[in-house]
Amino acid sequence: MTDANTIKLRITTLSRSIETACAAIDENAEINLSGVETAVEEICSEIASLPPEEGESLKDSLILLTDNIDKMDNKLKAVQEGLSTEIGNVTARQRATNAYGKPPPPKNE
Question: pTM, whole model, 2 decimals?
Answer without folding.
Answer: 0.75
